[in-house]
Amino acid sequence: MVLCLIFLEAGIFFFFEVSENKNQDLGGRRTAPQSPHPFLLIIKKKRGAGGFIPQGLAFDFSFARRASCFIYLESGTLMSGIAHATGPDESETLSILVLGDVVGRSGRKAVKQHLPGLRREYHVDLVVVNGENGAAGIGLTSTVAKELFLAGVDVITSGNHIWRHKEIYNYFSLEPRLLRPANYPDSLPGLGVYIAELANGGRVGVLNLQGRVFMEALDCPFRAADRCLENMRIGYELNALIVDFHAEATSEKMAMGWYLDGRVSAVLGTHTHIPTADHRILPKGTGYQTDIGMSGCYDSIIGMQTDKVLIRFLDYLPTRFEPALELGMVSGVLVIVEKKSGVCRRMVPIRRGKGLSETMGL
């Protein structure tokens, strides 16, 4: 018998692994026992609205991934189920995949290569992708938007570069699933909100906002969020609500997360192209990550060819940036939401392809 005891800030994990194959080894780690199955026991005194099991199982411990069932003990209540179905069972949750800024051809290829498998692997109900850099590394065209939709994307969000190619202006009226930040002036084409009607009967809202720190002086994104949320409440009109906050400053993104905590299912930052390691569930049940990264080539400088960007830093001369063309990866997060309340139950970082270390899944 092997007993693993791990102390976390919010509770204690006890993992018991029983196996007759005591000497099995693979790369310095024990392989999964054949019989009986391991189990996971989680003991906790207090539980916030975001839950504890989702955060605990998000760690990439090999035994947590192999655990076939769990027992959850809280205030005298005993619950059990499959390890990857934390909290409510799968029929009571929604799986929403959100991918960061698609940069150029490399990013589009990565989406087309990896998205079908991700949809199958995680039983994804809705895919949201920020596409504002999809056309040659800056801006979006109707042709590129259609390419992303055909690849399996359900909703495309954007940001400050969406206005780069004027031909996209008319496409807004033809495709409501293409969003621009809601705090741009109402006189501009497009909308900042879309409500998706899912095949399983769920309703998921997507809200696109843009920050102001080190960016354009737009309308206040916080007050814009208040206006949009007046008739979009999780647990009432919507089963889930995802916010793509396209902003530069980490402080502004974090402020938005805390401001909307409990009112939306997740606040996910985009724009800076580098995934942050702060995915979490806030106290009132809103999932949060400062930046979910870039879908594109990481052998680059935020998606652009390194030599072109280095000239700007070394000589401070104006240079035309070109998107990197090598193989890329998709980067984002899987948000698992309780269908009845709209509360986030789990945040799972997703990285697949060439570049950064790939994530290992649930």
Describe the structure.
The protein is α/β, with parallel strands linked by helices. The chain is 21% helix and 27% strand. The protein has eight helices and 18 strands. The strands form four sheets. Strands 10-11-12-13-15-14 form a six-stranded mixed sheet, with helices on one face. It has a five-stranded mixed sheet with strand order 1-2-3-4-5, with no helix packed on it. Strands 9-8-6-17-18 form a five-stranded mixed sheet. The chain is globular.
Q: TL;DR?
A:
This protein is of the alpha/beta class and 362 residues long.
Compressed to H and E, one letter per element, the order equals: EEEHHEEEEHEHEHEEHEHEEEEHEE
List unreliable stretches of 5+ residues.
1-86
The structural class is alpha/beta
Rg (C-alpha, Å): 21 Å
Mean pLDDT: 79
- Order of neighbouring strands in the sheet with most strands: 10-11-12-13-15-14
Distance between the termini: 25 Å
Strand percentage lies at 25-35%
Tell me the overall shape. Answer: globular
The biggest sheet amounts to:
6 strands, mixed
Helix content: 10-25%
Query: How many β-strand stretches?
Result: 18
Number of helices: 8
Kindly list the characteristics that best describe this protein.
globular, alpha/beta, 27% strand
